Amino acid sequence: MTPNGIPLSDVLLASGALFSIGLAGALLRRNAISIFLALELMMNAANLAILGYASALHSLEGQIVVFFVIAIAAAEAAVGLAIFVALFRHTETIDVNKINLLKW
Amino acid sequence: MTVRFAFDVAAGLAILFACVMVVHRHPVKSVLALVVSFFALAVTFVLLSAPLIAAIQVIVYAGAILVLFLFVLMLLNVPAEVRQTPGRPIHHTLSAGAIVAFAAALLAAFRSYGATAAPPAPAASDPADLAPLAKLLFSDHLLSFEALSILLLAALVGAFALARREGGP
Questions:
Q1: CATH of the domain at A56
Q2: Using one digit for the tens of pLDDT, what is the confidence trace for A11-24?
Q3: Taking a contact as any Cβ pair under 8 Å apart, which residues of chain A between 42 and 61 contact chain B?
Q4: Separation between Cα atoms, residue B69 and residue B109, nearest integer Å
């Protein structure tokens, strides 16, 4: 139970549902940018669980961890999108089924 | 229990728009649905007494990162996915089964955890007061903070090197 009266189970259920939806998106989509978006959603589900526990345990460390996660997500998005732009310049597509240069 | 109700509504909205994001075949619509989902998540962060993280979520995530996604989508002119004509029913059944099994296992594990987390001594601090957070960030976690700034610089240089036209200036 968090100080605001939100049971921890609600937070964890929401977090687990969001993570599963993100996993489904990462597995089902074929467009590389959509897969990347699903990964961002999974990272946010993890952030929600961390903040829920931080609130229930009256700890500030959780907020610091989430702060670092968001900053690293920004760096990751910049590098990942640069990779997609470079990839698109070479192959004219970002469909992950058509990018199979390293597939045996 | 109104706070709990508000939390459930916001979390439900986040989940709903996450589903919209996953089922849409057009990537631009996916990004816009994810923006709404992240705004709803920011509301849940406020209710979990983390207003600073909620502000960062709106400004950095919904504001900067998703706009970067949208920019690249517009730049590359990514088309909507077309349905694969042959279809592979075995693949679909197996992946749907795997996702459902994973979700069930995750939710079952979380259910048993959420009930037993005992609250320790309450600190009773005002969540809007950012001074303790800043003190913690710039004392115990100062080294990580500085390492993060180097990481962001490296990502900036790396993104520039990757996206640069080869043989250009």
A1: 1.10.287.3510
A2: 988 999 999 999 99
A3: 44, 47-49, 51-58, 60-61
A4: 33
Cβ pair B99:A20 closer than 8 A: yes
Helical (H) or strand (E) element with A32: helix A32-56
For A31, the 3-state DSSP assignment is strand
Could you list the residue range(s) of the whole structural domain that residue A64 is in?
A: 8-91
Please name the residue of chain A whose CA is at the shortest distance from the CA of residue B100: A20
The pTM (predicted TM-score) of the whole model is 0.88
Specify if A23 maps to a domain.
Answer: yes
CB contact under 8 A, A64 and B133: yes
> How far is A42 from B17, CA to CA, in rounded Å?
14
Q: Per-residue pLDDT tens, chain B, 169 aa: give them.
A: 688 899 999 999 999 999 999 998 899 999 999 999 999 999 999 999 899 999 999 999 998 999 999 999 998 888 787 777 666 778 778 888 888 898 888 888 777 765 555 556 555 567 778 888 899 999 999 999 999 999 999 999 999 998 887 765 5
Burial class of A29 by CB neighbour count within 10 A (0 to 12, 13 to 18, 19+): buried
Nearest to B99 by CA among A16, A52, A79, A101: A16
As to burial, measured by CB atoms within 10 angstroms (0-12 exposed, 13-18 middle, 19+ buried), residue B87 is exposed
Q: Predicted ipTM? A: 0.91
* CA B36 centroid distance within chain: 11
